[in-house]
Amino acid sequence: MGAGTEPDGSSRSDEEWERFLRESVAGAADAPKEPSARAREVAKRLRAEPGHGLEGWRSYTPARPKRRTGWYVVGLLASLVLLVVALAPGRIVDLFADADSPPPAARPTQVPPAEAAQRPTMDEPFRGSPAASWASGAAGITVPKAGAIGWMSAAEVERALASSRDFLVASSLDRGVLRGERPEKAIALINPHQKDVQDLLKTAFRSPSEKNDPLLLFSRFQPSRTHLVGDVVKTRGRLAYREGERGALQVTADVTFVYPVTRADAGGDDEIVRTIVRRELVLSWDDPDKVITEPGTFSIVSYKYDMTNGGCGAPTGYFVPPFGTDRRADEAGTEVDPYDRSAPVGRGESTGDECARATRS
């Protein structure tokens, strides 16, 4: 449907109509004071139809909205659905696309019971988590269609994108690496002539510190303390690319990983904690005629990560999920929704930011 026209001759895009609809239903203060001629005509026609008056609309704002950038409107009467179809056909799904569950049919009259039935189990470690519907492993990392850029042909870009995803698999999904092994396959993809990163790699595994911590690039758990539950890690994220400095292919990866773990000495205790790590990496596939590099390797431009349920103490080179009473150490941390990917990754390289506390895990 094309843009509508206001009485003064100005046009309004489909995105503005959708925003107007949401904000007017939710009672937003900055909603237009008067609908356009098209909206008035639709409303007039709907009022004329039996049983489709415009009165009785309701808006619903979840207690824990998944994203910070919008309202979630729940249409309780058929009139809302009809009006959405009239103003923006084909966009009904967008109203609820980010909700964690289907919209309720009516407003609850009682406080919901504790989510004991939704706690994770050894057979269903992602139960009760948004990650339950995410893809598993590398399947959750979207790779864009390749095109020629800088010094690379489309075929070369495609291979570089595949290798970039291979690095994410080798650094954050490989079962041996997750159990604390040295990430040799991932390291082999890093330009051996990049001195700062090579210096990090030389000391990080031997003497972890805030500056040289293997967790800056790799996901690792200490097997004597923590066991992974099952064979699946849930993921959601994507790769993007553009031309970088000196005609290089610059690849940006933004991926969230969800690791279900339990204590190594749990015995009969099946307490499961989900460690959630969101990584942002910028990789540069450089022109060997302009930068000293080796075939099939990239240089790391930057690395950032956000982490919850991974420990708040001094660096050990491993994630240290809190179990039982250890969770009290996180109570003073800043609250974050680790599944909210609408904001940029907040933790910089070796910033020493305080440990974040997950509003849901």
Q: What report would you give on this structure?
A:
The structure is a single chain. This protein has 361 residues and is α+β, with helices and mostly antiparallel strands. The chain has seven helices and eleven strands. Strand 1 and strand 2 form a beta hairpin. It is globular, with a radius of gyration of 25 Å. The N terminus is likely disordered.
Rounded Rg = 25 Å
Order of helices and strands: EEHHHEEHHHHEEEEEEE
Query: What structural class do you assign from the helix and strand content?
Result: alpha+beta
Sum up the overall morphology in one term: globular
Percent of residues in helices comes to 10-25%
Distance from first to last alpha carbon? 40 Å
Unreliable residue stretches: 1-11, 27-33, 46-117, 347-353
Give the mean pLDDT. Answer: 75
Largest sheet: 7 strands, mixed
Q: Report the portion of residues in β strands.
A: 15-25%
Tell me the number of helical segments per DSSP (H or I, 4 or more residues long).
7
**Count of individual beta strands:** 11
Secondary-structure topology with pairs:
Layout: E1 4-5, E2 11-12, H1 14-26, H2 37-48, H3 78-87, E3 135-136, E4 141-142, H4 154-172, H5 175-178, H6 184-187, H7 195-204, E5 226-228, E6 234-243, E7 249-263, E8 273-285, E9 299-308, E10 334-336, E11 356-358
Parallel strand pairs: 4-6, 10-11
Antiparallel strand pairs: 1-2, 3-6, 5-7, 6-7, 7-8, 8-9
Which key phrases capture this entry?
361 residues; alpha+beta; 7-stranded mixed sheet; two-stranded antiparallel ribbon; globular
